[in-house]
């Protein structure tokens, strides 16, 4: 059962219809042979019993029956293949959506540990394998097993000795497959790992193609990619080299049943305990009966391989999502109480406590790597703290539904990601039901309307994946427009560090000033000048708060902030 669960990404019901129709089609495939057997009996009867004439009228009926059964078989095959494909593709599509939805609900802490290439491969490659399993392999195997049992019972009515000899070698073939299933699994798993690794390296290579071109990275830089391709080739050869002969031996074993049946038939015929007609009937059926069985046996190894792909998907689907069901309260004040947090085993924030009243403007400043952006990520609940609590409206955000919480929060990050969509579509991510007028209004407020109108198709211009067709400043303003449209009461802003030209900088500042009006705002600031007027400036150093207060208070206390301020001023004056 666990195999079927894995094979179907935890949705074994998707197999019911394909198995049913395949079994019906397999059974329908036997009917023409029953007519053939009857035709053979009629034709041979005058030879065996010369006193009986050829029953031509009955023979015509048999021919008609054969023709009808072939039409029936055709209809059943069509139904089976339609059901197999429709159900397999819709099960895979549902599974992909379920997995994508699940990924969204997992903590970033978990996702950071996974390779993005691996996840992409799972979404496309592994599900494609499940499609093949659901549409072909599983129905084929179960249909073949059902047919073998029915055929054994049915043929036993004619002659149980020949029926038994026909299937005598089948247990040996099944045993061979079961005994080698450990090695099949091991080789499949090695091959799967090599395939995932090659996929990851390829993804890494494609993602970094600009850096590779820019730095003319050749030779040894490709070694990792090449090595992974070579390993994949080695594992593929090993897999085929071992599984091929195993499958072939199983097929030979099954087909040996026909030889056994012929030997038994000749022996019984000579002994006088079998009539020629029954023997001929078994010869005809014997040539057809093994086709589904051998196809099923040779598909077994592939099934084990696919099962592993399914197992990876099921494991990921069972990964616990971030807990919390409560709706956030009405208040918009944000507080961190004695928060300690680290990524993997690196400690980043230590015992951080800070209170940000509703409607206030708080700036987080400090040296690079001091943990400023991490504070924003904890407030948005991308991660949960190891110790301490983050509260919004006085309630622990760990108890809140993460999606409901995110509806209260707008975020503008340094590394703006734009989707491969139109400009309007990208802004609409702020609020999916926004009208075109609302999108344009948000764009005006975010100072991007003018540059958008200069693009070839204005708001309908497609943006390359990741926003690679726009400048850094333009992307930042589009992400501010998204936040404008979302109109959430809490704004988290990670100021761009990339050096922007003065015009861009002024426009972004103007856009930000509009965005933050009347909201609880927490800004990570790299340029201290931009947050001089903040209600409170929090200075972080090595994950601890070392100072907090207003601009003039911090300057007069002559601590880290004052030093950072003087350094930035000296740089600005070119000293
Ligand atoms: N996803 C992550 N996984 C592992 N470590 C991370 C991750 N994000 C950040 N870090 C590390 O955590 C530390 C704090 O990062 P953070 O981005 O919060 O600093 P920051 O003060 O905002 O830095 P900057 O001013 O350079 O943006 C850094 O040492 C960084 O390398």
Automatic annotation (TrEMBL):
<dbReference type="GO" id="GO:0140359">
    <property type="term" value="F:ABC-type transporter activity"/>
</dbReference>
<feature type="domain" description="ABC transmembrane type-1">
    <location>
        <begin position="19"/>
        <end position="303"/>
    </location>
</feature>
<keyword id="KW-0547">Nucleotide-binding</keyword>
<dbReference type="GO" id="GO:0005886">
    <property type="term" value="C:plasma membrane"/>
</dbReference>
<feature type="transmembrane region" description="Helical">
    <location>
        <begin position="137"/>
        <end position="158"/>
    </location>
</feature>
<dbReference type="InterPro" id="IPR003439">
    <property type="entry name" value="ABC_transporter-like_ATP-bd"/>
</dbReference>
<keyword id="KW-0472">Membrane</keyword>
<dbReference type="Pfam" id="PF00664">
    <property type="entry name" value="ABC_membrane"/>
</dbReference>
<dbReference type="GO" id="GO:0005524">
    <property type="term" value="F:ATP binding"/>
</dbReference>
<dbReference type="InterPro" id="IPR011527">
    <property type="entry name" value="ABC1_TM_dom"/>
</dbReference>
<dbReference type="InterPro" id="IPR027417">
    <property type="entry name" value="P-loop_NTPase"/>
</dbReference>
<feature type="transmembrane region" description="Helical">
    <location>
        <begin position="264"/>
        <end position="285"/>
    </location>
</feature>
<feature type="domain" description="ABC transporter">
    <location>
        <begin position="334"/>
        <end position="567"/>
    </location>
</feature>
<dbReference type="GO" id="GO:0034040">
    <property type="term" value="F:ATPase-coupled lipid transmembrane transporter activity"/>
</dbReference>
<feature type="transmembrane region" description="Helical">
    <location>
        <begin position="59"/>
        <end position="80"/>
    </location>
</feature>
<keyword id="KW-1133">Transmembrane helix</keyword>
<keyword id="KW-0813">Transport</keyword>
<dbReference type="InterPro" id="IPR017871">
    <property type="entry name" value="ABC_transporter-like_CS"/>
</dbReference>
<protein>
    <submittedName>
        <fullName>ABC transporter ATP-binding protein</fullName>
    </submittedName>
</protein>
<feature type="transmembrane region" description="Helical">
    <location>
        <begin position="164"/>
        <end position="183"/>
    </location>
</feature>
<feature type="transmembrane region" description="Helical">
    <location>
        <begin position="20"/>
        <end position="44"/>
    </location>
</feature>
<keyword id="KW-0067">ATP-binding</keyword>
<dbReference type="GO" id="GO:0016887">
    <property type="term" value="F:ATP hydrolysis activity"/>
</dbReference>
<keyword id="KW-0812">Transmembrane</keyword>
<dbReference type="Pfam" id="PF00005">
    <property type="entry name" value="ABC_tran"/>
</dbReference>
<dbReference type="InterPro" id="IPR039421">
    <property type="entry name" value="Type_1_exporter"/>
</dbReference>
<keyword id="KW-1003">Cell membrane</keyword>
<dbReference type="InterPro" id="IPR003593">
    <property type="entry name" value="AAA+_ATPase"/>
</dbReference>
<dbReference type="InterPro" id="IPR036640">
    <property type="entry name" value="ABC1_TM_sf"/>
</dbReference>
């Amino acid at each position: 059962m666990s195999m079927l669960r894995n094979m179907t990404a935890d949705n074994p019901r998707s197999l019911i219809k394909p198995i049913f129709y395949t079994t019906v089609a397999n059974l329908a495939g036997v009917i023409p042979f029953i007519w053939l057997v009857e035709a053979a009996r009629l034709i041979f009867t005058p030879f065996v019993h010369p006193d009986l004439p050829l029953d031509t009228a009955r023979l015509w009926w048999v021919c008609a029956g054969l023709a009808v059964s072939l039409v029936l078989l055709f209809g059943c095959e069509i139904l089976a293949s339609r059901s197999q494909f429709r159900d397999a593709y819709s099960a895979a599509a549902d599974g992909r959506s379920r997995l994508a939805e699940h990924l969204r609900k997992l903590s970033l802490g978990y996702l950071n540990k996974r390779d993005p290439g691996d996840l992409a491969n799972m979404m496309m490659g592994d599900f494609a394998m499940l499609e093949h399993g659901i549409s072909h392999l599983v129905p084929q195997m179960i249909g073949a097993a059902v047919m073998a049992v029915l055929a054994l019972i049915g043929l036993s009515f004619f002659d149980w000795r020949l029926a038994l000899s026909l299937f005598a070698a089948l247990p040996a073939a099944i045993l061979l497959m079961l005994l080698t299933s450990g090695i099949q699994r091991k080789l499949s798993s090695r091959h799967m790992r090599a395939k995932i690794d090659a996929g990851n390296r390829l993804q890494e290579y494609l993602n970094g193609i600009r850096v590779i071109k820019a730095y003319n990275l050749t030779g040894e830089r490709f070694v990792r990619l090449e090595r992974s391709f070579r390993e994949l080739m080695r594992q593929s050869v090993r897999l085929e080299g071992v599984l091929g002969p195993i499958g072939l031996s199983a097929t030979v074993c099954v087909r040996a049943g026909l030889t056994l049946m012929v030997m038994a038939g000749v022996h019984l015929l000579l002994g006088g305990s079998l009539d020629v007609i029954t023997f001929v009937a078994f010869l005809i059926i014997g040539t057809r009966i093994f086709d589904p069985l051998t196809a099923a046996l040779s598909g077994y190894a592939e099934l084990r391989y696919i099962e592993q792909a399914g197992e990876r998907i099921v494991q990921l689907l069972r990964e616990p999502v971030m807990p919390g069901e409560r709706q956030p309260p009405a208040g918009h004040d944000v507080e961190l109480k004695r928060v300690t947090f680290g990524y993997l085993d690196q400690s980043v924030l230590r015992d951080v406590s800070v209170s940000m009243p509703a409607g206030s403007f708080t700036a987080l400043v400090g040296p690079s790597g001091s943990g400023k952006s991490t504070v924003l990520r904890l407030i948005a609940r991308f991660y949960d703290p190891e110790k301490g609590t983050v509260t919004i409206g006085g309630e622990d955000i760990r108890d809140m539904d993460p999606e409901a919480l995110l509806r209260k929060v707008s975020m503008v990050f340094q590394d703006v990601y734009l989707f491969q969509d139109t400009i309007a579509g990208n802004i609409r991510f702020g609020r999916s039901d926004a009208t075109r007028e609302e999108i344009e209004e948000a764009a005006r407020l975010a100072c991007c309307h003018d540059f958008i109108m200069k693009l070839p198709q204005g708001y309908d211009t497609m943006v390359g994946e990741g926003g690679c067709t726009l400048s850094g400043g333009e992307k930042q303003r589009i992400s501010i427009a998204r936040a404008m449209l979302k109109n959430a009461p809490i704004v988290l802003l990670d100021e761009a560090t990339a050096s922007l030209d003065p015009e861009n900088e002024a426009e972004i500042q103007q856009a930000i000033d509009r965005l933050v009006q009347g909201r609880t705002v927490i800004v990570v600031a790299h340029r201290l000048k931009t947050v001089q007027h903040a209600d409170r400036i929090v200075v972080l150093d090595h994950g601890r708060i070392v100072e907090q207060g207003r601009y003039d208070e911090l300057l007069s206390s002559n601590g880290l902030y004052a030093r950072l301020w003087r350094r930035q001023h000296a740089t600005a004056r070119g000293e």
